[in-house]
Amino acid sequence: MAGFLEVSIYDAGVSKTLMKEDPSPTYDYIIVGGGTSGAVLASRLSEDPAVSVLVLEKGQVVDTWITRIPLLFANPTSKNFVSVRWMSAPQTHADNRTLPMVRGEVLGGGGSRINGALYTRGTPYDYNRWEELGNVGWGYNDLEPYFVKSENTLTHPVADKKLTP
C-alpha cells in the first residue's frame, strides 16, 4: 500500500531466538514511541503477567551511569549525547530561513534526557493544601504510594506530614 513503510519483525528488534520459539508473535498492546510516556505506559501495562506489550522506538538504548544524571547527560558536546539534528521548514517570520532543531531519540525519552528533566515530589504541605481546598484524594498521604511507585524505590523514608510553609 502506498505511503506505508513495511517493517519486518526483525526490524522491530525482536530477537531471532524469540522468533524460533514463536514465529508469529502477537501482542496485546503495541506502543509506538518509547519516550517517557510510552515507557511508563508499557511498564504499567506489563505489570499484569497475562499481558504482552511491544514497544517500538526509533532511538537507541543507552543505559550508562552518565545517562542517569540528567544535567550531565544533557551536554550536547558529549560523545554520549543522543540527538539528531533536523532542519525546519522555511520560517516565514525569519526571512524564510530553515533553522536547526535538536531532537532527542533514545529509549526512555530523548526529550526528557536532553532537556535535563528533573523530578521532585513537592512538599507534603502543597498536596495537603489542595485537599483542604476541596480536592478529595489529592492529599500527600493519598499520593505518596504513587510517588514511590513512579520512583521505583524499594524503600523510602516516611515524610514528615506536618511540614508547614
UniProtKB/TrEMBL annotation:
<comment type="similarity">
    <text>Belongs to the GMC oxidoreductase family.</text>
</comment>
<dbReference type="InterPro" id="IPR036188">
    <property type="entry name" value="FAD/NAD-bd_sf"/>
</dbReference>
<protein>
    <recommendedName>
        <fullName>Glucose-methanol-choline oxidoreductase N-terminal domain-containing protein</fullName>
    </recommendedName>
</protein>
<dbReference type="InterPro" id="IPR012132">
    <property type="entry name" value="GMC_OxRdtase"/>
</dbReference>
<dbReference type="Pfam" id="PF00732">
    <property type="entry name" value="GMC_oxred_N"/>
</dbReference>
<dbReference type="InterPro" id="IPR000172">
    <property type="entry name" value="GMC_OxRdtase_N"/>
</dbReference>
<dbReference type="GO" id="GO:0050660">
    <property type="term" value="F:flavin adenine dinucleotide binding"/>
</dbReference>
<dbReference type="GO" id="GO:0016614">
    <property type="term" value="F:oxidoreductase activity, acting on CH-OH group of donors"/>
</dbReference>
<feature type="domain" description="Glucose-methanol-choline oxidoreductase N-terminal">
    <location>
        <begin position="27"/>
        <end position="155"/>
    </location>
</feature>
